Amino acid sequence: MKSIILAIVSVLLTQFPALAQEHPSILLTRNDVKALRAGVTQYPLLRQSYKSILRAADKAIQMEIAVPQPTGEGGSVAHERHKRNYLDMQMCGIVYQISGEKKYAEHVKKLLLKYAEVYNSWPRHPNRKIEPGGKMFWQNLNDCVWMVYTVQGYDCIYDYLTPPERQKIERELFEPVVKELSEVNTKIFNQIHNHGTWSVAAVGMAGYVCGRKDWVEKALKGSALDGKGGFLAQLDQLFSPDGYYAEGPYYQRYAILPFILFARAIHRYQPELNIYGYRDGLLKKAVDILLQMTYTNKVFFPFNDALKDKTYESEELVYAVNIAYSDMEAGDDLLDIAGKQGRVIVSDAGLKVARAIAEGKTKPFRYRSLWIRDGAQGDEGGIGVLRNGPNENQACLVFKAASQGMGHGHFDRLNILFFDNNVEVFSDYGSARFLNIETKSGGRYTRENDTWAKQTIAHNTLVVDGRSHFNANLKKASATAPKLLQFESNDDYQVVSAIEEYAVPDVRLERSTILFHPEKNAPSLLIDVFRAKSDKPHRYELPFWYQGHLVYNSFPLSVNTNALKALGADFGYQHVWLNATGNPGNGNATLTVLNNKRFYSTTFLSDSTMKVQLVTSGAGDPNFNIRSEKAFILLKENVDSYSFLSITEPHGSADPVTEATAGASPQVKGIKMLEDSDYRISFEFRYKNVRYTVEINHQDKKTTITKNQ
Amino acid sequence: MKSIILAIVSVLLTQFPALAQEHPSILLTRNDVKALRAGVTQYPLLRQSYKSILRAADKAIQMEIAVPQPTGEGGSVAHERHKRNYLDMQMCGIVYQISGEKKYAEHVKKLLLKYAEVYNSWPRHPNRKIEPGGKMFWQNLNDCVWMVYTVQGYDCIYDYLTPPERQKIERELFEPVVKELSEVNTKIFNQIHNHGTWSVAAVGMAGYVCGRKDWVEKALKGSALDGKGGFLAQLDQLFSPDGYYAEGPYYQRYAILPFILFARAIHRYQPELNIYGYRDGLLKKAVDILLQMTYTNKVFFPFNDALKDKTYESEELVYAVNIAYSDMEAGDDLLDIAGKQGRVIVSDAGLKVARAIAEGKTKPFRYRSLWIRDGAQGDEGGIGVLRNGPNENQACLVFKAASQGMGHGHFDRLNILFFDNNVEVFSDYGSARFLNIETKSGGRYTRENDTWAKQTIAHNTLVVDGRSHFNANLKKASATAPKLLQFESNDDYQVVSAIEEYAVPDVRLERSTILFHPEKNAPSLLIDVFRAKSDKPHRYELPFWYQGHLVYNSFPLSVNTNALKALGADFGYQHVWLNATGNPGNGNATLTVLNNKRFYSTTFLSDSTMKVQLVTSGAGDPNFNIRSEKAFILLKENVDSYSFLSITEPHGSADPVTEATAGASPQVKGIKMLEDSDYRISFEFRYKNVRYTVEINHQDKKTTITKNQ
Questions:
Q1: pTM for this structure?
Q2: Does the beta-carbon distance from A654 to B436 stay under 8 Å?
Q3: What pLDDT digit, counting tens, does each position of A209-233 carry?
């Protein structure tokens, strides 16, 4: 009896102030609901967003309650059913709040009670890949996501439930799930990693909703409450001071949702923690930087492990943009993004966004040229983003000089990506993965993600002696980062320059790229200087993976027409077919590609021993997991040091509908190296018959481009 | 003196009635101009169309008059300049009529006088490929196009010119050009071919505008006035009674413009000829059939020589749709197309279209399932088009059982193309050509158009013994056509079936395809039966060129991972890399492809000796003229007769943005042949656990699909 009383007291003591015990309280609050009910009839974007979840909720409540025994991987029936269920619970909860119709609450209740009934009878997931693994899904991560959504649904129907129902759900479902996340999978829970964030968000949000301060504290400070793990440590260590997330944009997108949702819950329940102000407004910066790492086609820069068709239309970014706009004063240009997302979250944040758009406050999204620092302290390299032109026709160069990015990082120091005219010009392969396609390695990363997608040759950066950077050793690669030499952005050009000293033994890699605008309202030139410095002879290969179709080569190519062979045996070379080789000879050489109705000519400095290889990805691929992509590779063999110098020029147009072609001839000519010393590179070229001299000076950290009359 | 008088009398006698001597009189008429001036301010589509040509005209009048000495091929400076000039003359003429501003007329005048000054000093074109070839352009065809546009510009500024100016232009420019077209290139002029149509339209339209009845008569009846050539003979012989043009949709699109323009001129000047009523309203049918040969992504079915990105947004179709709507009562569903074209011609026809759209008369375009007869008499095979579903999500099967289609025809008897979900599923390569890309064979068809694109293996039809149909002999192929066996379209399915008896010696080819809709609002199944009948053993290969990425094979594949070889040495096989082979064994086998977020599973009847080859196009291609495309080939060796039986099933979805996958498993199972006799094919299969029996009966010309309980 005494112990029972003590237990009750202890529960009471760990609860939050009265305010916080109102439900709902996370995305929706009781106060918001009235305004929201009016808003869904007033503001088009909110109206259609509500209609869309209403449709889904109506579909959901007509389905049988199905809580199948867990089995199978991504894409399998049980997996997709449990995913569906958590989305349904969240949506039906919201619709219940807006419409007041009990049938929606009833559906959530039934699902929750069914889960409560069966959850504890399930063994560990039969398809788990590592121990302990997930319970409801093959990996613990999905169990966490399930909780993040489910607890929102529970929050919305809390008042609809009887106390015994709540008790059953909290005791027989949420408590065991929290235990599963924070104790059984304690390693993940305490990890400084996006899986850890999903886990602490799940436990922390459940803690707020269920009034369990102990769960919240664990979520904030780690399971040992020592601050070594948990949300705050993740905020400290996973982001750079600029808001860059170490794994890169694809995972920053994925991680932003639990960060934003949990932060929102903290903001609601414990405003005194000032979580939005944490680390000088880090979360707002993180949302901004994430959007700055998209191109005008909405797609995230696909470096590191990334699905290439992932856009800012994804769910996570709808939450992030809405909450950043509503809670963090992120500026009216965010409304441009929200408009293009085409929906808002049905919550007070979404209401604010939809209202502002309806009031005509939208401004074009302000894409910027910037250097984004990586590393918790901002001292582990970074990402250079160079942009020019209006949002409708923007040139964008991405320069990757960041740290490795943990297990999802690729071995691609000083890699570049080039976008123009709303498409990829020089592209990154992204990851080798067919997400949720069960027939493709269970929807997980395929073997070729390691053997191909991560290897250096799959990227637009220098490969030395046919080996990947750091010999593709994650631990070694994680120990160091490249260093910024210069970054500048002005009206005439943007420049970013960095060195990498550790990726290749004995070789110092240095790259400088310039986005140069010789004329107003005309395409920008991409000037690229890649220098390799060494005392010993090496084989240097600089690939340019391009999109489009090769339409011109200024030098003869010897083409393999009857038989193809793989380019090598390891470090990704086993996945590359060699189509052709050429010797451009002394002087300048040009390759022209036609891509999305525009020409792209790369003119490069050549010499008597330079070779060019044309290649296609897809060799060594017994399961057809690799897309067929094309590259030209500039190749120098047996040289100590070498500087690759090229200028890529977008030009002209070829319209198949009107059958009009214009400006098909490249205008860059006469590239000549003037000086190539340790701290100074100087060269000249002609463009439309005007001579320009470029000097990149690393001592003064300055680049000048002079127009010669 | 006497001869001068006689000449004058003769000119007077050959002129048209007073009415016709008004200018302008073709696309614009003096009467229209007032309504049009009001219309360009009233109706959005006309307003923006006018704005767009106004912008172009304003740009044009600011340019120097440049009439360069002819040289170079498609895409070259002089070629593109002369193209620009004729477009500018037409546009400035129209803008002069609408705006009344003389600067536009002045620009046309200057260009015309400049042409008149230099035209007769030019030699034959230096880049001509055949004799006599063109004069202004490398081929005579472009000279004809030049005249068709230029004479419209002249018509618009006729009244602005002084009589001596007119005389100079007509005597020193148009007369020599007409002579060039109708006498120097008399063979083309009299040809029953789209080049001939451009030529007679040029001469005929010039005849009307210049009041030269002799030119008109030649244009209508051929240069000998015997009716063996000329416009009427072309209308008689180039179109089938259904309005199908023998070369296929790509060239029907190209040819439709001179047909429609010249017809419009005839209609204006000689209404008594009732040209719109000719051959039972042939021209209206031709426009309709042309649109029926597009898919919902706007693209023309790309069979025969065709650029794959050609859509009905092209100039020719804007003219055709506008004039068909305004002059031929073609129906309000044409406004759907006009709306999607996004512009109208600035003329009374465009005015009618823009007004009707502004008045809300648009109806969704009525895509139909139909059998389109080929051959002047309608007895040379045809094109089957099977469709199902709403315009937003339509399944469409194209069955090519037409005649050869002259020099632009491909050797692909009984070829099929399958579209679904707004994309290609089983695709046609189209032509191997980079139109107007001068670095690519001067923008002409590349060598690979003959060696690859035209060959049978490049298509989704049966190749026997590794040789193309008719051994790729155009003359032999042109002598015969396939024959229709059945065509039917009802609520549950569409079916088309045809035989080809001459393409392969000793082998009779017979194909039946069915688009079957087992459920409402669900994807259609494509059922395909390809029968080869012979008394002697043969090698049969049935390729399916697919778009998308292979994600599942139900049987093991032996993959060439280190080296690829070309599949053969001739008939297009030299252009195909062999990636993998497999032996599916007895029973059913399945290949699944993911394409535009939807799965496509082809399940086929297999046996112990069936082989499957996975291939990629692009071998034997020293100039990189071939796109990389993928196919699976069903292969039977050393059999007399064989029936390939497959069912292709669109299913499920995989959305990378929401990361939701559904319906990833194919539902077609248990395909079993029940009877395979001369006039009857009967088989069963299960779909979603329901058993269906299909009977294709050629004696009764009837197909039945029975649902078995």
A1: 0.91
A2: yes
A3: 999 999 999 999 999 999 999 999 9
Of A443, A577, A623, the CB nearest to B564: A577
A446-498 tens-digit pLDDT: 999 999 999 999 999 999 999 999 999 999 999 999 999 999 999 999 999 99
Residues B655-683 have pLDDT tens digits of 888 888 889 999 999 999 999 999 999 99
Rounded-to-integer distance, Cα A318 and Cα A290, Å: 12
In 3-state terms, what secondary structure has residue B213?
helix
Give the domains, in start order, of chain A with CATH numbers. Answer: 26-210 (1.50.10.100), 239-366 (1.50.10.100), 370-661 (2.70.98.70)
On chain B, the residues whose CB falls within 8 A of the CB of A546 are none
pLDDT at residue B20 in the model: 52
Put residue B423 in one of left, alpha, beta given phi > 0 → left and psi -120 to 50 → alpha.
beta
Long-range contacts of A672-680 (CB under 8 A, 24+ apart): A672/A605, A673/A605, A673/A643, A673/A645, A676/A531, A676/A643
Determine, for residues A552 and B311 on separate chains, whether the beta-carbon distance falls below 8 Å.
no
Looking at the predicted structure, is the pLDDT value of residue A16 above 60? no
Rounded Cα distance between B108 and B88, Å, is: 8
**DSSP string for residues in A666-701:** --EEEEEEEEE-SSEEEEEEEETTEEEEEEEETTTT
Count Cβ atoms within 10 A of the Cβ of residue B605 and give its class: 0-12 exposed, 13-18 middle, 19 or more buried: buried
pLDDT (0 to 100) of residue A29: 86
pLDDT digits (tens, 9 = 90+) for A234-251: 999 999 999 999 899 999
Length of chain A: 709
CA end-to-end span of chain A: 96
Confidence of residue A6 (pLDDT cuts 50, 70, 90): very low
Helix axes B194-210, B231-238, angle to 10 degrees: 150
| Alpha carbon of A592: minimum distance to chain B alpha carbons (Å) | 10
Q: What are phi and psi of A549, to 5 degrees?
A: -120, 130
Q: Which of B309, B562, B622 is nearest residue A619 as measured by Cβ atoms?
A: B562
| CB contact (8 A) between residue B551 and residue A434 | yes
Per-residue tokens: B304: 């025969």
Q: Is the pLDDT of residue A125 over 80?
A: yes
Whole-number pLDDT of residue A521: 83
Beta carbons of B559 and A439 less than 8 Å apart: no
Give yes or no for residue A18 having a pLDDT over 50.
Answer: no
Q: What is the ipTM of this complex?
A: 0.89
Measure A43 CA to nearest chain B CA, in Å.
24
Cα–Cα distance between B159 and B29 in angstroms, integer?
12
- Residue A272: CB atoms within 10 A of its CB come to 7
Residues A428/A417, Cβ–Cβ less than 8 Å: yes
Nearest-Å Rg of the Cα atoms of chain B is 28
DSSP conformation class of B299: B
**Interchain CB distance below 8 Å, B664 and A628:** no
pLDDT per position as a tens digit, B391-443 = 999 999 999 999 999 999 999 999 999 999 999 999 999 999 999 898 999 88
Instruction: For residue A7, give how far its alpha carbon lies from the nearest alpha carbon of chain B (Å).
Output: 43
Count the residues in chain B. 709
User: What is the residue-averaged pLDDT of chain B?
Assistant: 95
| Catalytic site positions of B | 251, 408
Q: Is-contact B244 B383, C-beta < 8 A?
A: yes
| Contact: A656, B435; criterion CB under 8 Å | yes
Supply the pLDDT for residue B230: 97
As a whole number of angstroms, the distance between CA B259 and CA B272 comes to: 18
Which chain A residues have a beta carbon less than 8 Å from that of B443? Answer: 661
Write out the H or E segment, with its range, that includes residue A77: helix A77-99
Q: Which residues of B touch A574 (CB under 8 A)?
A: 561-562
Which member of A614, A656, A661 has the closest CB to residue B80? A661
